[in-house]
Amino acid sequence: MNAGSLSFYFLSTRSGKVLGAKINYKKAISYLTKDLHVEWVHNPFLDRMSLTHYTSAAIKNEGKIEIYGEMYTIDEMEKLSTETEGRISEFTFGPGGSEGYILLLKMESCQILKAKTFDRNTFELFMNWVNALESSNYEENYRKLYEAVPVGSILYVVDLKASEKRILPYRLERYDPPTSDEYPFRLVDVSPGSSGTYLLSKGWESWSNIFYRIEDAIAFLNNNN
Fold first, then answer.
1. Could you tell me the residue ranges of all domains in the chain?
2. Residue 144 contacts by C-beta under 8 Å, 6 or more apart in sequence?
3. Distance CA 217, CA 96 (A)
4. N or C: which end of the chain has fewer CB atoms below 10 A?
5. Chain-wide mean pLDDT for the chain?
6. Is a pLDDT exceeding 70 seen at residue 5?
């Protein structure tokens, strides 16, 4: 498998808020069928009948088969059949042959969701659903720092003021400030070739741009692009 090689549809989004977003497959299929009323949704691996068909075809072809431009082995298809959620690596929408439109989602794992619709607004509506879901996941699940952060911990600071917004790794250290009024902890930049420091003050654990996990820092950065 080689994610990201599909390019045969006419319209492809490269929105950072959609690409990389995590979706639950059952919820996505339910939204497409019940809310957007698409004609059909095809998933080669989550649908048992489709999986059986493709597995049988792969057996006759040296244990592999091409599906929507990607090569899959039997083991890869079986693994994907147990996957429940994933992150979007490609999202395309375009004319569906002689009529209608085709929406195609490819995940980072090479899982595939394909839908047929006659409503050209499906593209924007589904994008909005993904963006809203991602924002909801961010608000509900992002984890801030614990009150007690061990000295020596690596923390991630999101710099939104730089010309190019970025995430920088820092190490928490204790030091002797020049005056007793100053806070005795600071962050030291551990980026290669850097020796910068980030001064802290009481209550810094609740600052919105400092994170314990890189995943949370990335989510915060994407949410502020």
1. 11-141, 154-223
2. 205, 206, 211, 212, 216
3. 39
4. C
5. 81
6. no
